[in-house]
Amino acid sequence: MSGSPLRYAALSIATSLVVLGLKLTAWKVSGSVGLLSDALETLTNVGGALMAFTMLRIALQPPDEAHAYGHGKAEYFSSGFEGMLIFAAAAMIAVEAVPRLTDPQPIESPGLGLGIAVLASAINLGVARLLLRAGRRLHSVSLTADGRHLMTDVWTTVGVLAGLVLVVLSGWLWLDAAIALLVAAHVLFEGFKLISEAAHGLMDSAWPADEQARLNAVLDRFRVAGEVDFHAIRTRRAAALRFADFHVLVPGDWTVQRGHDLIEQIEAVLAGEFERLIVSTHLEPSEDPRSYEGRPMHRS
Predict the structure, then answer these.
(1) How far apart are alpha carbons 212 and 219 in whole angstroms?
(2) pLDDT at 38
(3) C-alpha 169: how far from its chain's center?
(4) Would you state the torsion angle of the CA atoms of residues 157, 159, 164, 167, taken in this order, to the nearest 10 degrees?
(5) What is the CATH architecture assignment of 209-292?
(6) Where are the domains of the chain?
(7) Maximum alpha-carbon separation in the chain
(8) CB within 10 Å: which end of the chain, N or C, has fewer?
(9) CA angle, 152 then 153 then 156, to 5°
(10) pTM of this prediction?
(11) 5-202 and 209-292 share one fold
(12) 3-class secondary structure per residue, the chain
């Protein structure tokens, strides 16, 4: 499958609805609170997929007068929203599971329930892998978050199924509720990670250390002792876009044309090194003390 991120988001919505129906059916035929917890987590997938689709539509809009840097950060709202939905799912799972610890209920038709859950998990696995690949290729925060959410759902189902097998083999009915609570703890951890990553994105976090090292390696190629240097290097990301800004220090007797030509060369090399990069530079005379005012000299 190829094309717009919106096509992948639409596929995620359709998949989540189908899988939710299958898991609710598995719970109905078995009465397992573990399978119910699995279905409740899938319910958050539906909400997350709808949010991802909505935020992607906004993020893909071109820059306008009110949003000169584009709308890419809308994708972080999708990621954070999915994390909050996961928190809600964990609370619903706990509400259903805690009473079953002291009042365990028998599991009916476990074979049929397990079979339906396996089918649902296989569908989730295939779509999750597709979304993760598309998210990396298209640099989409929303698709990556959605894919990770579906993978969490897959592992949740695997845990629930393993637990149900133990319940059937051992006869320990309380184990069904205990597994549901473990599922709740697991999805809480995943939800925290999604919210944390969304917050970092909205707060203009710097590039990862390896990307900063690549940026500085490019700048080092243009550094000339006593002639060309850089400082006030800053980086940030906004979903698929990277931003970098820095000051370029050159001798004050250089012509404007010579300084401009140098910056053009630097930006051309950076464009080849980083995809979707927007660079802002400021040319300064190295002899002027004011060139070092405002921001401390540092390497990002």
Answers:
(1) 11
(2) 76
(3) 39
(4) -170
(5) 2-Layer Sandwich (3.30)
(6) 5-202, 209-292
(7) 86
(8) N
(9) 85
(10) 0.64
(11) no
(12) CCCCHHHHHHHHHHHHHHHHHHHHHHHHHHCCHHHHHHHHHHHHHHHHHHHHHHHHHHHCCCCCCCCCCCCCCHHHHHHHHHHHHHHHHHHHHHHHHHHHHHCCCCCCCHHHHHHHHHHHHHHHHHHHHHHHHHHHHHCCHHHHHHHHHHHHHHHHHHHHHHHHHHHHHHCCCHHHHHHHHHHHHHHHHHHHHHHHHHHHHHCCCCCCHHHHHHHHHHHHHHCECCCEEEEEEEEEEECCEEEEEEEEEECCCCCHHHHHHHHHHHHHHHHHHCCCEEEEEEEEECCCHHHHCCCCCCCC
Give the pair of three-digit tokens for residue 19.
Answer: 């899988």
Q: pLDDT tens across 240-267, in order?
A: 788 999 999 999 999 999 999 999 999 9
Average pLDDT estimate for 116-136 = 89
Q: Which two tokens stand for residue 148?
A: 């990770």
d(CA 107, CA 168): 8
The superfamily (CATH) of domain 5-202 is Cation efflux protein transmembrane domain (1.20.1510.10)
In Å, what is the CA distance from 78 to each residue of 84, 105, 151? 10, 37, 17
